[in-house]
Write a structure and sequence with these properties.
The protein has 13 helices and twelve strands. With about 400 residues, the protein is α/β, with parallel strands linked by helices. It folds into two domains: about 140 residues, Aspartate Aminotransferase, domain 1 (Alpha-Beta Complex), CATH 3.90.1150; about 240 residues, Aspartate Aminotransferase, domain 2, CATH 3.40.640. A seven-stranded mixed sheet has the order 2-8-7-6-5-3-4, with helices on both faces. Strands 9-12-11 form a three-stranded antiparallel sheet. Strands 1-10 form a two-stranded parallel sheet. Helix 5 packs parallel to helix 6 and helix 5 crosses helix 9.
Length: about 400
C-alpha cells in the first residue's frame, strides 16, 4: 500500500553508505572513525563569537531570500581575489543551507526530464541522487587510479550524447583527494564549449590543496564564466559543518531560477550562520586566512602520515593533493570494498567507507578521512595493519 504514495525516483535511490557505517558503529566501544568527512577542529572562537553577539543583539529575524548583503559582498570579493571569478553580489550570489542545498536546487532549476548529467566518478554520493530527484539521468564518467583519478577530456567526450546537458566537476575531489591541473581543466573546458555543456563546479575543498598546488576555478577560464556555476561553502576549510552555510555564484538567470526554489522551500539560511560566515571571510581576508592555513598545515601533516602508513602496509595508494581523504586500493585482499569495510569494522572497530559507495569506479578502494587526531590515526593504522595480516 505505501509504495503507491512514494515517488519511485526516491525509492530507487539507496540510503547513504557513509551514514550506514557511521550508524553501525555508533554503539561500538573504542571505535575509530575514518569515515565521516568532517574537520576535527572547532570553529575558530572569533567566528563563534560573532554568531553569539548576533543572538545577544536580538538578530533573530528572517534575512532576504538571497542572504544578507554584506555576506554576499564578501563572497563576491573572495571569489574575485582568490579565483579570478567576478560576480555581482546583488544578483549573482545566493546563500544556501550548505553546499548540499545549492547542488540540489541548481539541478532542479536546470534539468528537464531525461536530461543527462555527466558525473566523473568516484564522486560525492549526493550528485547521482540529486540528479535523479530532479528528473535527470546520471551518466558515469570513469576516472582511474593509474591517472591519479584526474578527469580525462577524451573519456568525458566519449560519454556525451545529444541529451547531455550538465557536467558536475568536483576538484579537489571527495573521495579520492585528487586535483585537476590547469592543462587538464582547460581540455575539459574545450569539451564543454564544443558540446554546449553547463558546468556545475563543487569547490567546497578548494582551500584544501597541498604542496603549493592551487586548484584553478573553471569559471576563470576563457569562455567558461557564462556556462559555469560555482558552488561552495564554509564547512570544510572554515570548520563550520554545523552552521550549514553554503552558496552558489553564477550568471544572473541561473541564480534567479535556483532562488525561486530556495525561497519556496527554505526561505533563507540561518541569520546567525550567515553572520558567522561573513565574519569568517572578512576576518580571513584581513589576516591572510591564518586559521585556514593553520588547519591546512595540520591536515597536510596527517596526509603524509597516512600515505606512509598505507604504503608501509603494502597497499597501493596514489598521493592525494587535496581535500582530506585517502583512497587506497584493497584489491590485493580479494575482498570487495564493502566486505572489507564490514569486516574491518566488526573485527577491529575501524570505520572506513567502501569505495563502491562513490560509484563503480571506486570499487576495490576504501575512503579514509585523515581529519582526526594523530593519536587516533596511529591507533587506526595499527588496527588496519593487523587486520590485513588476516586477509
Amino acid at each position: 500500500m505505501s509504495e503507491r504514495f512514494i515517488n519511485p525516483a526516491v525509492s530507487a535511490v539507496p540510503p547513504s553508505a557513509i551514514r550506514k557505517f557511521f550508524d553501525s558503529a555508533s554503539t561500538m566501544k573504542n571505535a575509530i572513525s575514518l569515515g565521516v568527512g568532517e574537520p576535527d577542529f572547532v570553529t575558530p572562537f572569533s567566528v563563534r563569537n560573532s554568531a553569539i553577539d548576533s543572538l545577544l543583539d536580538g538578530e533573530t529575524q528572517y534575512t532576504t531570500n538571497y542572504g544578507i548583503l554584506p555576506l554576499r559582498e564578501e563572497i563576491s570579493r573572495y571569489l574575485s581575489e582568490r579565483y579570478q571569478a567576478g560576480y555581482d553580489p546583488h544578483t549573482e550570489v545566493l546563500v544556501t543551507v550548505g553546499a548540499s542545498e545549492a547542488i540540489d536546487i541548481a539541478l532542479r532549476a536546470m534539468l528537464r526530464p531525461g536530461d543527462e548529467v555527466l558525473i566523473p566518478e568516484p564522486c560525492y554520493i549526493s550528485y547521482q541522487a540529486c540528479t535523479r530527484f530532479a528528473g535527470g539521468v546520471p551518466v558515469q564518467v570513469h576516472t582511474h587510479a593509474a591517472n591519479d583519478f584526474e578527469l580525462d577530456a577524451k573519456d568525458l567526450e566519449d560519454c556525451i550524447t545529444p541529451k547531455s546537458k550538465v557536467l558536475i566537476l568536483s576538484y579537489p575531489n571527495n573521495p579520492t583527494g585528487a586535483v585537476l591541473p590547469r592543462e587538464k581543466l582547460e581540455a575539459v573546458a574545450r569539451v564543454a564549449i564544443k558540446h554546449d555543456l553547463f558546468v556545475i563546479c563543487d569547490e567546497i575543498y578548494s582551500e584544501l590543496a597541498y604542496d603549493g598546488f592551487i586548484q584553478v576555478s573553471m569559471a576563470s577560464l576563457p569562455g567558461m564564466w557564462e556556462r559555469t556555476m560555482i558552488i561552495s561553502g564554509f564547512s570544510k576549510a572554515f570548520a563550520m559543518t554545523g552552521f550549514r552555510l553554503g552558496y552558489m555564484a553564477a550568471p544572473q538567470p541561473y541564480v534567479v531560477a535556483a532562488a525561486k526554489i530556495h525561497q519556496y522551500t527554505i526561505m533563507c539560511a540561518s541569520r546567525q550562520s550567515q553572520v558567522a560566515a561573513y565574519y569568517a571571510l572578512k576576518h580571513g581576508r584581513e589576516t591572510g586566512y591564518a586559521d585556514v592555513i593553520r588547519m591546512r598545515e595540520s591536515y597536510n601533516q596527517r596526509r603524509r602520515l597516512m600515505l606512509k602508513a598505507f604504503r608501509d602496509m603494502g597497499l597501493e595508494c596514489f598521493e592525494p593533493r587535496g581535500a582530506f581523504y585517502m583512497f587506497p586500493s584493497i584489491k590485493k585482499t580479494g575482498l570487495s570494498s564493502e566486505a572489507f569495510c564490514e569486516k574491518l569494522l566488526q573485527e577491529k572497530a575501524v570505520i572506513c567507507v567502501p569505495g563502491s559507495a562513490f560509484g563503480d569506479s571506486g570499487e576495490g578502494h576504501i575512503r579514509c578521512c585523515y581529519a582526526t587526531a594523530i593519536s587516533k590515526l596511529q591507533e587506526a593504522f595499527e588496527r588496519i595493519a593487523a587486520f590485513l595480516k588476516t586477509c
